[in-house]
Amino acid sequence: MILIADSGATKTDWWWGDTHTQGTIVQTEGINPFHQQKEAIFQILSESLLPLLTPPDICTALFFYGAGCTPEKSIELKDILQSFFPNAHIEVTGDLLGAARALCGRQPGIACILGTGSNSCYYDGDKILANTPPLGYILEMKEAEQHWANDLSPTV
Prior knowledge:
- With 156 residues, the protein is α/β, with parallel strands linked by helices.
- The radius of gyration is 18 Å and the shape is globular.
- The longest helix is centred in the last third of the chain and has 17 residues, at 136-152.
- Helix 1 packs across helix 2 (71-84).
- 34% of the residues lie in helices and 30% in strands.
- The protein has a 5-stranded mixed beta sheet. The chain has a 3-stranded antiparallel beta sheet with strand order 6-7-8, covered by helices on one side.
- It has one domain (2-152): ATPase, nucleotide binding domain (Nucleotidyltransferase, domain 5).
- The protein has helices at 38-49, 71-84, 95-104, 136-152, and strands at 2-7, 11-17, 23-29, 61-66, 89-94, 109-113, 119-123, 128-132.
């Protein structure tokens, strides 16, 4: 069984199956290792995901593509996932690589993510070669700060 996750802060879409065309999709709360403690991630996996899957020990490969999966956080998340899926080869990378693989396959191309974590890259069919750092999350934070400042400022 192969398990693939596409995760953001709000939700994680999980696909599992034995072939590229036959599988099942389920959804859990989002997993973002940059903003969540290990205990919260353990809870999501044990309470929301595992009850929906066949025995996890039959999982042979797990690909997790997610927001907040920096190199350091990817290692931490991989260790957590390995404790649930001990027989699986596990790869944890950023959501942009997941988008590039889904869109381009093994061909070179440009991939984009739209939303709070908007991002774009040039993908060579294997890895991301060029990327401009995203501003979506930062701009949303700035907009929220401005909203609070307006609410707190006295009316003139």
